[in-house]
Amino acid sequence: MADRYKLTGQDPLAKQPKTIIISHGGSPIRKKRPARSPESTQLTGLMALLISTGILLVLSGATVTSAVISFIFFTPIIIITSPYWVPAGILLFFFVAMVLSVCGVGLAAAAVLVVQLLIKGGDGR
Predict the structure, then answer these.
(1) Average pLDDT over residues 29-36
(2) Contact of 60 with 54, CB cutoff 8 Å
(3) Which CA distances in Å does 51 have to 38, 40, 57?
(4) 42: phi then psi, degrees, rounded to nearest 5
(5) Residue 117's CB: how many other CB atoms inside 10 A?
(6) Would the pLDDT of 14 be above 70?
(7) Which residues are CB-neighbours of 34 under 8 A, at least 6 positions away?
(8) What are the Cα distances from residue 21, in Å, to 18, 26, 30?
(9) Cβ(31)–Cβ(20) under 8 Å?
């Protein structure tokens, strides 16, 4: 057991186990911890992480590239047809605002009816 910790006959540059010092109030207890190699599940997880990161990087690059190319291609078309897009956008805005207003008024009316029913006793009498 004593020859286990001697450095005679060993390569001085070889990796030695890390020393953990445990102290319980008195003299410290030295304990050697063997070097640990990664487990197969850790290697599999690392490989999955690297592969999925690479795939997501390629997909995001393709997305940005296609967005830039389509922006370059469609900008002149949008500028040329803008006399049609601006009135259509204004009409669409007012139509959506009208529909949302009608829905809001209907919701408010339903809420008033529910509160009235609750105040009168729940059965409407």
Answers:
(1) 66
(2) no
(3) 18, 16, 10
(4) -70, -40
(5) 13
(6) no
(7) 17
(8) 10, 12, 5
(9) yes
